[in-house]
UniProtKB/TrEMBL annotation:
<protein>
    <submittedName>
        <fullName>NIPSNAP family containing protein</fullName>
    </submittedName>
</protein>
<feature type="domain" description="NIPSNAP">
    <location>
        <begin position="7"/>
        <end position="99"/>
    </location>
</feature>
<dbReference type="Pfam" id="PF07978">
    <property type="entry name" value="NIPSNAP"/>
</dbReference>
<dbReference type="InterPro" id="IPR012577">
    <property type="entry name" value="NIPSNAP"/>
</dbReference>
<dbReference type="InterPro" id="IPR011008">
    <property type="entry name" value="Dimeric_a/b-barrel"/>
</dbReference>
Length: 104
């Protein structure tokens, strides 16, 4: 299992647009076999940092999702929405493996 951690720098004047973008992606990740754990928008502190977490069974499954998303019309529309609104200034992607109680 691998969890993708996305850290976004967003335009603080376009949080509503970024929230719409986030809501587009949650079902799309799940459509391609992932489990979305949500987006996290600014509240207190920095007003331009947002996060997202989602999990795939393996890095290979994540890579397949990425490849498939580039050919999916709904995913393309979500990419275009972010580009058109310019709500995302930059992002950084990292991968983690979860540790659960009792796991070895």
């Amino acid at each position: 299992m691998v969890t993708c951690y996305l850290s976004y720098i967003i335009d603080p004047y376009k949080v509503k647009e970024f929230e719409h973008y986030a809501k587009l992606w949650i079902p799309l990740v799940e459509k391609f076999g992932g489990k979305h754990h949500g987006y996290f928008l600014p509240s207190e502190g920095a007003n331009n940092v947002a996060l997202a977490l989602f999990t795939f069974p393996s890095l290979a499954a994540y890579e397949q999702y990425r490849e498939d998303s580039f050919n999916d019309p709904e995913c393309q529309a979500a990419f275009k929405y972010a580009e058109d609104t310019r709500c995302i200034l930059s992002y950084e992607r990292s991968f983690f493996r979860p540790v659960f109680e009792g796991s070895v």
